Amino acid sequence: MRAPSFWTIRFGRDAAPILRLLLSPLGALYGASVARRIAKASPLALPIPVISIGNLTAGGTGKTPFSQTLRTLLAELLDGQIGIVSRGYGGTLEGPVAVDVGAHGAEDVGDEPLMLAQGGPVFVGRDRAAAGKLAAEQGMKALILDDGHQNPALAKALSLVVVDGQTGFGNGHLIPAGPLREKPAIGLARADAIILMGPVSDDTLEDIAGFEGPVFHASLIAKPIAIDGPVLGFCGIGRPEKFDATLRSLGLNVVDLYPFADHHRYRLDELGRLEADARAAGATLVTTEKDHVRLPLDFAAKVRVVPIEAVLADEAGFRAFLRGKLDSYIRQD
After folding, report:
1. Is 196:215 a contact under the CB 8 Å cutoff?
2. What tens digit of pLDDT does each residue of 227-238 get?
3. How far apart are CA 327 and CA 113, in angstroms?
4. Is residue 331 predicted with pLDDT exceeding 60?
5. Rounded (10°) angle between helices 63-78 and 315-325
6. Over 70: is that where the pLDDT of 1 sits?
7. How many other C-beta atoms can be found within 10 angstroms of the C-beta atom of residue 309?
8. 65 cis-preceded (ω within 30 degrees of 0)
9. Who contacts 219 (Cβ-Cβ below 8 Å, separation ≥6)?
10. Radius of gyration (Cα) for the chain, nearest Å?
């Protein structure tokens, strides 16, 4: 399912004010259920630090590429392997299990865990406390809890909230009336820092104005790829328009972009249509890393990938912030 367009529109007819009003009671129930789950939890304390990366909204904010960047920084800081713990959304394995890129597919462990596992250890489990315990037993120096801000299973040494710089908290309403998983004042009260991802709008600055912790800026940077002739893009991510903008920013000749729902499992007929349309346009098929791991191997071999990395504007300042928050763990080594 793709996020409704009115989730990011604040005013006017396109903001669907009547529908939003009708859905608001359901949003209140959703927010209450999140708050109740967090309040009643007894988080498991591990002997290693757990760093949560999450957000307050549904949809893509750049958490996955930032997880890769954070893993690199933590590995240098703590001098050891850093594991990532994920629920494994879209996968069938309940876990806990260490992701094996040679044995597991996206249908087993989910697309994001499989992609992240290409850069280091990833542990998947519906019970993230059990997955975290398995990771600690396998010698990880620290854990990154993916999409963990509303998950209270593990005690956290540090909580980072990633916010899309353009859309911020959308229309300010809770799911399904808007994109919010919880009220910003409540969610940000548990955050140690905000990562603003991409260009920042005035609305987003207003959304986070009450936050008193540090705010770091980061950008999603696409690594250049050389493709002669036209390209036809496709993706199943939270905000497909971002991928379209990325392709154009690389100077590629984009003839079209086919958007699918986030974590979409491609059917054979859909892949056939993509291939036929690309052939008719004389175009090269291009997709994201996250989508590429969901493709059948024979089809994936025909598709080019645009790698994305999250780059901090002030990496030195963020390193100092991490060192200050994790100092006790560093001294123990």
Report:
1. yes
2. 989 999 999 887
3. 28
4. no
5. 60
6. no
7. 15
8. no
9. 197, 198, 310, 311, 313
10. 20
Question: Quick one: tokens of 218?
Answer: 């980061």
Tokens representing 58 are: 């549904």
How many other β-carbons are positioned within 10 Å of the β-carbon of residue 97? 21
Nearest to 283 by CA among 232, 227, 224, 225: 232
Q: Which residue is listed with tokens 């690594």?
A: 223
Side by side, the strands of the sheet bearing 308-312 are 97-98, 122-124, 82-86, 142-146, 50-54, 158-164, 193-197, 215-222, 308-312
Kindly report the pTM of this predicted structure.
Answer: 0.88
Task: Show the beta-strand stretches assigned E in the chain.
Answer: 50-54, 82-86, 97-98, 122-124, 142-146, 158-164, 193-197, 215-222, 230-235, 253-259, 284-288, 304-306, 308-312
Tokens of 204: 């987003």
How far is residue 147's CA from residue 62's CA, in Å, rounded to a whole number? 11
Peptide bond into 4 cis (omega under 30): no
Strand segments (E) across 88-223: 97-98, 122-124, 142-146, 158-164, 193-197, 215-222
Structure tokens given for 331: 């001294």
Q: Cα 301–306–309 angle (5° rounding)?
A: 135
**Residue 132, burial from CB neighbour count under 10 angstroms (0-12, 13-18, 19+):** buried
For 166, the 3-state DSSP assignment is coil
